[in-house]
User: Fold N-acetylglucosamine-6-phosphate deacetylase from Pseudomonas soli.
Amino acid sequence: MDIANILTPDGWVRGQLHLENGRIRAIEGTPCDPQTNDLTYLLPGFIDLHVHGGGGSDIMQGGDAFATIARTHRRFGTTSLLATTMTAPREELTRVLAELGEHLKQPRQGARILGVHLEGPYINPGKLGAQPNFAHQALLDEVEEYLALAPIKVITIAPEIAGHLPLIQALSQRGIRLQIGHTLGSYEEGVAALEAGASSFTHLYNAMSPLHHREPGIVGAALAHARYAELIPDLLHVHPGAIKVALRAIPCLYCVTDSTAAAGMPDGEYRLGSHTVTKCLGGVRLPDGTLAGSTLTMDQALRNLVKIGLPLAEASARLSRYPADYLGIADRGRLQPGAWADTVLLDRQLNLTAVMVEGETA
Assistant:
């Protein structure tokens, strides 16, 4: 590989990677300050833990949609992702998860799909956002059925629903990440969920009870107590000032796209689960104007974070290392010997010039 400014866990190195069997064998180079040269930037590939679609395809379509979505997001620097479902009837979720489970047995196409983020149906019907109205109480036998079909890594859940706290405790003990989201819960209910084992918040600020100085809400619970939370940095879902608040409060805040089928596509109408959504003016909305996911890609997320003042190394960590750490993955999200060779190469204006997934350059 050509010499570049390589971002390692120990800082910037002017040098090159040596690869073997899709992994980093060694990093050859010397410590550097990238502001003193004009070399390109080599960063860890982006890890997106909230992806509904892209390239005109939606996860809930199943079949060929998975490969289309993985290839689309690889174009924008995402090297691994979680396929994220929409709230839907049990039989539809069963079908999609079964098809995804079979897809994951096939050779990788595009970004590596690490598993599933089940966003609903265990959410509050009073805080659906753009989710279809199939929300219901979580049942362990239903979750067990889904777990047998595909590797579910993350589940979004509203903690205030009766029976959810014991389920959060049981599933978190099995290594599943429970995220608080689409919720009307109080601050106290949010804290109780964290104490039961919930470990993050789904698209922080959006679709959750807001912060008020006498009723802190779920946002207040996140800002006061969370180590991890996901946030959509498209500068449409969350104001830059609110992003900065979260950055100061939540040590390992990580960023997601919450992307829909409209990502990487022209303006027009697209599917989002059972909904039809419209992409226009840089966003995706339901007919009533409700934001319905995004058109964000991870390379633009990086540029947005730098635009609002984050150093490039910190912006990279919130798109790669922190999401890997959240899932407990030690060999992705960082450039170091033994890790998968998942990389993005950017020019000095932070435009993507090359993407590598597990040692293969696209």
About this structure: The longest strand covers residues 11-20.
